[in-house]
Amino acid sequence: MRSYSADLESVAAILREAREIVVFSGAGLSADSGIPTFRDGATGLWNNFDPDEVASIDGFLRQPRVVWNWLRQLKDLVDERQPNAGHQAIARLEEISTAKRLTVITQNIDGYHARAGSAQVLEVHGTIHRLRCHQRCGFVAIWEPSAVEPFPCPNCGAPARPDLVLFGEMLDEEVFAAAEVRSLNADVFFCVGTSFTVQPAAHLPMWAKSAGATMVEVNPHRTPLSAAADYSVRSGASQFFSALCSTLQQENKENG
Ligand code: APR
Fold first, then answer.
1. How many angstroms is it from 120 CA to the middle of ligand 1?
2. Whose CA is nearest to atom 3 of ligand 1?
3. How far is the CA of 252 from the centre of ligand 1 (A)?
4. What is the CA radius of gyration of the chain?
5. Does domain 36-80+129-164 have CATH number 3.30.1600.10?
6. Which helix (H) or strand (E) holds 162?
């Protein structure tokens, strides 16, 4: 088992040669912001709520108020909290790395990557900050605090709903296709704070690896992908990415 600092040095060295970097993130990245993950121990949201009832399309069409209220409470928590050192370090990595591009592909709906300053973010599960028409007639709006209960789309009368992927729904094809292309072109593919439970997003790391990427997993616990990762770093996201940025900034200073 390599030491943490050895992993850090090796990953920093690999980044120096990388042209395309992808950071694939899950709920674990926002844990340090106080946003509960979905499957972690007693605090995991799906250990306390039934996703079919509060976060599925069937649940929404059956009882729109239940899904609307549950997501509204999650949004209020997201709005109260803020991006953490891990989000900020990933945004800083985009600035200080010598790569041509750093793309964030996130399963998270909290919008924290963009708030922390990341410029290239693909939200494959959508966002909790926007509403749209369920029939995709074109209506889109910011989810304002005043919108406390479901309402009909002002354009076509179909239900308005949060612009995120509910269980039982397909992902936005355009966003996922872009995520696939960036993953297949990645030289380094970071997997941060995800249990790789939900498809098709969870395919991306192995597609990247099969296309030649070096896969770096950052997670305090082992996951089904730990064995396939080139580096499986047992660390919290904030700690690892902050240390990685410091290492790179130090090297940039030494190399002038
Ligand atoms: N740093 C890094 N990883 C962490 C941290 C941390 N500080 N804290 C927890 N983790 C790890 C956990 O070990 C776990 O492997 O984050 C992972 C969180 O896993 P999940 O709760 O399953 O979240 P995620 O993988 O994002 O879920 C995927 O499932 O419910 C759907 O749509 C939802 O996007 C979500 C998808």
1. 21
2. 193
3. 32
4. 19
5. yes
6. strand 160-164
Q: Exactly one of 87, 113, 125, 134 is catalytic; which is it?
A: 125
Rounded Cα distance between 225 and 81, Å, is 30
Query: What pLDDT, in 10s, does the model give residues 140-199?
Result: 999 999 999 999 999 999 999 999 999 999 999 999 999 999 999 999 999 999 999 999
Judge contact between 60 and 158, C-beta under 8 A.
Answer: no
Ligand 1 atom closest to residue 46's alpha carbon, by position in its atom list: 30
- Amino acid at residue number 2: R
Confidence band for 1, pLDDT divided at 50, 70 and 90: low
How would you classify residue 138: left for phi > 0, otherwise alpha for psi between -120 and 50, otherwise beta? left
44-98 pLDDT per residue, tens: 999 999 999 999 999 999 999 999 999 999 999 999 999 999 999 999 999 999 9
Q: pTM for the whole thing?
A: 0.97
Domain with CATH 3.30.1600.10 in the chain: 36-80+129-164
Whether 223 contacts 205, CB under 8 Å:
no
Strand order in 160-164's β-sheet? Answer: 140-142, 126-133, 160-164
Q: How far is ligand 1, taken at its centre, from the CA of residue 44, in Å?
A: 9
For residue 250 the two structure tokens come to 């130090």
Q: Whose CA is nearest to atom 28 of ligand 1?
A: 198
CATH among 3.60.130.10, 1.20.920.10, 3.40.50.1220, 3.90.1150.10 for 1-35+83-125+171-256: 3.40.50.1220
